[in-house]
Amino acid sequence: MTRDYANRKPRSPAKPRTTRKSTKAAPARRFPVVLAAIVVFGLASFGYFLWSIYGSSDSAPASQVETPAPKPKPAPKKDPDALPPKPKDEWTYQTELENKEVVVDLPQQPQAPSRPYQMQCASFRVKSQADELKAMIAFQGLEAHVRQVQGSSGTWYKVVLGPYDTKRAAERQRHVLQRAGINGCQIWLWEG
Question: Is 122-189 in CATH node 3.30.70.1070?
Fold first, then answer.
């Protein structure tokens, strides 16, 4: 809804409102006699109900109960399917183990390989390709060797690094080569 404020008629000045104070007092509230009578009657009825059921329980109060003399227990009948009594345990292991000597045969532990590790990065048919990879490895600050190997399918040129005393040292240098983009290097035991 839009209002047109431009074409509005001006209002006449507002007269101050006068408030009338009533001189009549508010009627006093009467006490609810009927409601009070109902509440008193209800409470009296509930009290009478509780008083009437107080002595009607099946058991008498503890002060009025006589305790009968205990009856002797009859002898238990023997069950033919009953299990025999549990035997008494006698532990002798402490005395036996005090002076016992135990001999254990340990199998021979496999020893760590005494040969150091090597890392082979590639194998080429042409020596110039192997020398090129060797130069790329040298730019990473590592020393590589090119080995000529005679295989069943002809001559191969292997690019190897090492020897390393531990596999961890070889892994460290392999990560250096991987960061340089030279992937595929394998770690082997040194073959002399």
Answer: yes
User: Is the separation of the CB atoms in 133 and 119 below 8 Å?
Assistant: no
Q: Please state whether 14 falls in left (phi above 0), alpha (psi between -120 and 50) or beta.
A: beta
167, 187 in Cβ contact below 8 A?
Answer: yes
Query: How far apart, in whole angstroms, are the C-alpha atoms of residue 126 and residue 67?
Result: 114
> For 65-115, what is each residue's pLDDT tens digit?
566 667 777 776 778 888 888 888 777 777 777 777 878 888 887 665 566
Q: Which residues contact 139 (CB under 8 A, 6 or more apart)?
A: 180
Query: Measured between alpha carbons, how far is 163 from 117 in angstroms, rounded to an integer?
Result: 5
Listed by start position, the domains of the chain span 122-189
SS (H, E, C) the chain: CCCCCCCCCCCCCCCCCCCCCCCCCCCCCCCCHHHHHHHHHHHHHHHHHHHHHCCCCCCCCCCCCCCCCCCCCCCCCCCCCCCCCCCCCCCCHHHHHHCCCCCCCCCCCCCCCCCCEEEEEEEECCHHHHHHHHHHHHCCCCCEEEEEEEECCEEEEEEEEEEECCHHHHHHHHHHHHHCCCCCCEEEECCC
